[in-house]
Design the sequence.
């Protein structure tokens, strides 16, 4: 088990007070991939279940591959800028991070069914098309920075809470609570450890939390689809997924020292400062499948349905942390810094993400354009975590069931042909909150242009996404002894936004 004070999205530990809840936010993060899409379908808000005819169909509804009448190659680079505005203990801060990369690349091979000369080419199976494509489904690159003055608690309260009533000689070497004890941030009492820091009505400390995240989720899909009489399209694909996630965290705190009897006189009425550092690296691979159909009752109308199985992941989690502390005497002179080497905790676990069901409708406006819309259902309470540690598995799955729920996501888009070969697009998507008791929805607005010439095309899309979240640098259980401590730990309110630009180049052959 990893002993750490990881940052918990949406106040998860506040709800559960479980040492194992550290995994609960991770598995949700990895269970919210975006459907892969080219710039065209991103410009349509990602509404692609019923539309088809795009390499994006591999990751959403593989039946859409059946609409191809030529082979096609596409390539989509991207530029992303992520911004996070925070409010923590009455202080506002902000941070941003930008990165360019490859969002999508793929190829579809058109394969018409050979028929006897003179037969009706639209009778029976018309074509059987194959495709392979890479999509980035989740971008973890972001920076979070918040700070403020805390008059209610110190992270040392969290360290003391971790130590509980364990005798000093029994604290695990290399554990965070042992580091805090060796750094004189907590002291032992038979009733429970207490912090050597001062907070309250006339005392406060300064806290800052800096988190840098990087990495991504991606997927390679291999699929096929058949076209039956240009009315019914059936498809399936196999997804090979990958996770590469890193979170680098630094928490800083500065404040005043208490004057408990028995404490070294050098510390009394002085000040303290410490840095808590952690690095989490999670990597692994998974597999899923997609099944879908599209039906055209009339030539203008398309109805789509797809089922995306859970993704079964095998993940490795490497976590390292340390704690370094500096004290100053009341006269301002510095006591040599107390340092600790990095302690590392490695674990392996399996994750099963939720299944996803998509229904869609698209209406073709002749040669003028189209309208398309999707609805998706995802049950996040169906996430399952498993590991070799029974308690870890039981408690994490208990927290998942208690905190998460099913929700509906909506996507819609419209495309108009402005002049010959030149198209204008707009889209909107709404993702419902995955939490039972927290209203954290996500909205995205997109707009784009497309141009076709001979067997080539270019599409460009700008998308703006926004969502709220919270972050707790540390949390403290309700059974923690009351040493002038009030509250379960501070929480930062975060306003997140992402500005993305996607450019797709395609060629038919």
Sequence:
């Amino acid at each position: 088990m990893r002993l750490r004070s990881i940052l918990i999205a949406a106040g998860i530990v506040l709800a559960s007070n479980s040492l194992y809840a550290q995994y609960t936010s991770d598995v949700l993060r990895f269970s919210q991939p975006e459907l892969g899409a080219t710039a065209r379908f991103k410009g349509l808000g990602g509404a692609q279940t019923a539309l088809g005819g795009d390499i994006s169909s591999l990751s959403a509804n593989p039946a859409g591959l059946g609409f191809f009448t030529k082979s096609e190659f596409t390539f989509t680079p991207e530029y992303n800028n992520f911004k996070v505005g925070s409010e923590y203990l009455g202080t506002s801060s902000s941070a941003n991070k930008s990165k360019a990369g490859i969002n999508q690349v793929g190829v579809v091979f058109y394969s018409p069914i050979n028929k006897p000369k003179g037969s009706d080419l639209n009778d029976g199976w018309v074509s059987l098309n194959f495709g392979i494509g890479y999509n980035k489904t989740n971008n973890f690159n972001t920076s979070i920075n918040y700070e403020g003055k805390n008059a209610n608690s110190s992270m040392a309260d969290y360290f003391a809470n971790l130590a509980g009533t364990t005798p000093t000689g029994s604290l695990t070497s290399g554990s965070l609570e042992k580091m805090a004890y060796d750094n004189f941030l907590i002291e032992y009492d038979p009733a429970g450890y207490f912090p050597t820091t001062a907070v309250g009505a006339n005392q406060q400390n300064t806290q800052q939390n800096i988190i840098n995240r990087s990495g991504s989720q991606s997927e390679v899909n291999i699929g096929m689809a058949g076209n039956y009489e240009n009315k019914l399209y059936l498809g399936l694909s196999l997804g090979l997924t990958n996770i590469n996630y890193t979170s680098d965290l630094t928490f800083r705190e500065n404040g005043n020292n208490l004057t408990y009897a028995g404490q070294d006189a050098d510390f009394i009425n002085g000040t303290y400062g410490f840095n808590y550092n952690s690095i989490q690296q999670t990597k692994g691979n998974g597999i899923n499948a997609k099944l879908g159909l599209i039906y055209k009752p009339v030539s203008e109308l398309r109805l789509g349905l797809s089922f995306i199985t859970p993704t079964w992941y095998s993940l490795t989690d490497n976590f390292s942390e340390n704690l370094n502390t500096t004290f100053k005497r009341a006269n301002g002179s510095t006591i040599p810094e107390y340092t600790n080497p990095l302690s590392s905790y490695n674990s392996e676990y399996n994750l099963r993400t939720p299944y996803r069901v998509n229904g869609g409708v698209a209406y073709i406006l002749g040669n003028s354009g189209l309208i398309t819309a999707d609805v998706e259902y995802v049950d996040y309470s169906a996430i399952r975590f498993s590991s070799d540690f029974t308690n870890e598995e039981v408690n994490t799955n208990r927290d998942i069931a208690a905190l998460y729920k099913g929700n509906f996501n909506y996507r819609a888009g419209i495309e108009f042909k402005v002049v010959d070969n030149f198209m204008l697009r707009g889209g909107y998507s709404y993702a419902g909150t995955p939490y039972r008791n927290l209203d954290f929805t996500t909205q995205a607005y997109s707009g784009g242009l497309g141009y076709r010439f001979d067997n080539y095309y270019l599409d460009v899309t700008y998308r703006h996404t926004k969502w709220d979240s919270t972050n707790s640098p540390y949390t403290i259980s309700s059974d923690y002894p009351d040493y002038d401590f009030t509250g379960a730990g501070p929480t930062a309110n975060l306003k997140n936004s992402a500005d993305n630009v996607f450019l797709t180049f395609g060629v038919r052959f």
